[in-house]
Design brief:
The chain is α/β, with parallel strands linked by helices. It is 28% helix and 27% strand. It contains eleven helices and 17 strands. Strands 3, 4, 5, 8, 9, 16 and 17 form a seven-stranded mixed β-sheet that branches. Strands 12-11-10-13-14-15 form a six-stranded parallel β-sheet, with helices on both faces. A hairpin with a 2-residue loop joins strand 1 and strand 2. Helix 4 packs across helix 5. It is globular. The termini are close together.
Length: 340
């Protein structure tokens, strides 16, 4: 079979590999589509601290079941599915309490273990999720959508909340859709107008260019000087974390999805004064199945997640797909690679 392998940073090739041999309790899947995540780009460029080489990237995917043992999940040969790509140890304190997305020894496909950028993969049956009739292309969006969805759940976003999403990359846009599905009024901030236009097309209530406009002044105007009930930070920068603290209301909540690499200095009195709650948000937690149900309800609507797909590349052009994202001017949201 063919697979995409990053031998060393900057060296990505399509290679021939043996077909996977499923172990007991595993199914053989034929990959249909695989999305390119920011972590895949980091592995490609050598900026992913948790990856070693050589590595097959990819954890946002859909597939067809080719072989599967008898199971209680109703999964059968020929079904189109997706799967949870976060492998937990099952033994650490987080896992024992049921917080498997926070496993101390988490191994995500494409990062700490080989991923889905291959024509065939073996996957534990327990990790496979019924696609409920969604197309293979749509199912490849479930994992990145689940990141924003989990963050919104962490922030307990409720109907009629005022929510600010900072950062309108793919995860930020997915978080905005998730908050809209909760019935919130959602506003999005970014420094690129092309991303803000994408947010408006998805039906958010308003946008602000934080580079050319005054974000805090807009927040005050929108909320009668109260501040946002929830701020979802998806940029991972010190400046955006500080902006979130200023924008949130007293007794409000901040959700940090952006994975920052720079240290940030702040006065803790700001947190104490507002009695704000700050949540970290990592991966997703058993949210694939309910999210697939939500996606089915929104297909064809203004919040249809398929609008997030900017471009689909064939497997033969996978290197062009990675390079296009490295040169992204903000016009590309989700880029998928089609297998088969």
């Amino acid at each position: 079979m063919k697979a995409v392998r990053i031998a060393t940073p900057g060296e990505l090739d399509i290679v021939e590999m043996p077909m996977p041999q499923p172990a007991a309790g595993e199914a053989l899947l034929k990959v249909s589509y695989c999305g390119i995540c920011g972590s895949d780009l980091q592995t490609y460029t050598g900026n992913q601290p948790f990856a070693d080489y050589p590595r097959i990237p990819g954890h946002e995917f859909s597939a067809e079941i080719m072989e599967i043992p008898a199971n209680s999940k109703g999964l059968k040969r020929g079904m189109t599915v997706t799967a949870n790509p976060y492998f937990c140890c099952g033994q650490c304190y987080s896992c024992r309490r049921g917080f498997v997305n926070c496993c101390r020894d988490n191994k995500t496909m494409g990062v700490q273990r080989d991923g889905a950028f291959a024509e065939y993969i073996a996957m534990p049956v327990e990790r496979i999720v019924d696609g409920m009739g969604l197309s293979a292309q749509t199912l490849a969006l479930v994992e990145p959508f689940s990141i924003g969805y989990h963050g919104v759940n962490r922030g307990e976003v409720a109907h009629n909340d005022n929510v600010l999403v900072i950062g309108a990359g793919p995860i930020g846009l997915f978080a905005a859709i998730a908050a809209k599905l909760k019935g919130a009024s959602v506003y999005v901030a970014d420094v690129l107008n092309i991303r803000l236009q994408a947010a408006m097309a998805l039906g958010v209530n308003g946008v602000v260019n934080a580079k050319t406009g005054d974000l805090q002044a807009v927040v005050k105007e929108l909320t009668q000087n109260n501040g946002m009930d929830v701020v979802v930070e998806c940029a991972g920068q010190p400046e955006t974390f500080l902006a979130a603290q200023e924008a949130v209301c007293f007794r409000g909540k901040i959700v940090l999805i952006g994975n920052g690499k720079r240290e940030v200095t702040f006065n803790q009195s700001a947190i104490v004064k507002k009695e704000m709650t700050i949540y970290g948000s990592r991966n997703s937690a058993n949210e694939f199945a309910p999210l697939i149900g939500l996606i089915k309800l929104t297909e064809g609507s203004r919040m249809d997640v398929n609008k997030m797909v900017s471009k689909v590349f064939d497997l033969a052009d996978v290197k062009h797909a990675f390079d296009a994202l490295l040169k992204n001017d903000g016009s590309l949201a989700k880029v998928l690679v089609k297998f088969g």
